[in-house]
């Protein structure tokens, strides 16, 4: 079911400062910020040779990232994203196996313009998992 690692997401309190660290200190190529109101975040992606790093900043106080940053004020790893061939088939298989899908269970369009779902971290060794249709 799992495809390649798409990205690792890091929640940050200040997207501009975090972008500068990756761009200026590590010499990384960083995308322009992208606002995703449906997900409550503003994101940038850092392209690496074999995957991406996503930096997430809360978009408003109701953002799930704002709640994460209350517990982790300096920021930290938020989730890991894997690609799947068919997100609906994957969702149904996971639900049948007892995994919890966050939200209403229906895929939403993510930052790459593709359907995504999030899986409950308690079902995946304490890690929030995002699935993205390849």
Could you please describe the fold and organization of this structure?
The chain is of the alpha+beta class and 134 residues long. It has one domain: 2,3-Dihydroxybiphenyl 1,2-Dioxygenase, domain 1 (Roll), CATH 3.10.180. Helix content is 22%, strand content 37%. The protein has three helices and nine strands; from the N terminus they run E-H-E-E-E-E-H-E-H-E-E-E. The protein has helices at residues 15-25, 64-71, 87-96, and strands spanning 2-11, 29-30, 34-36, 41-47, 52-58, 76-84, 108-109, 115-119, 129-133. Strands 1, 2, 3, 4, 5, 6, 7, 8 and 9 form a nine-stranded mixed beta sheet that branches. It is globular, with a radius of gyration of 15 Å. The model has no long low-confidence stretch (mean pLDDT 96). InterPro entries: Glyas_Bleomycin-R_OHBP_Dase, MeMalonyl-CoA_epimerase, MMCE/EMCE_epimerase, VOC_core. Keywords: Cobalt, Isomerase, Metal-binding. Pfam families: Glyoxalase_4 (PF13669). It comes from Borborobacter arsenicus. GO terms for molecular function: metal ion binding; methylmalonyl-CoA epimerase activity.
Give structural attributes.
2,3-Dihydroxybiphenyl 1,2-Dioxygenase, domain 1, 3 helices, alpha+beta, 134 residues, single chain
Summarize this entry quickly.
The protein is α+β, with helices and mostly antiparallel strands.
How do the strands and helices of this protein lay out in sequence?
Blueprint: E1 2-11, H1 15-25, E2 29-30, E3 34-36, E4 41-47, E5 52-58, H2 64-71, E6 76-84, H3 87-96, E7 108-109, E8 115-119, E9 129-133
Parallel strand pairs: 1-5, 6-9
Antiparallel strand pairs: 1-6, 2-4, 3-4, 4-5, 7-8, 8-9
């Amino acid at each position: 079911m799992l495809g390649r690692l798409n990205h690792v997401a890091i929640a940050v309190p200040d997207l501009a400062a975090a972008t500068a660290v990756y761009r200026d200190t590590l010499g990384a190529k960083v995308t322009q910020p992208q606002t995703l109101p449906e997900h409550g975040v503003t994101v940038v992606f850092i392209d690496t040779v074999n995957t991406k790093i996503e930096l997430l900043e809360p978009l408003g106080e109701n953002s799930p990232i704002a709640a994460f940053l209350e517990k982790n004020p300096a920021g930290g790893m938020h989730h890991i994203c894997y690609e799947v061939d068919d997100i609906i088939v994957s969702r149904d298989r996971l639900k049948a196996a007892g995994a919890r899908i966050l939200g209403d269970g229906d895929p939403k369009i993510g930052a790459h313009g593709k359907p995504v779902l999030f899986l409950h971290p308690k079902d995946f060794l304490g890690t929030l998992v995002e699935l993205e249709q390849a």
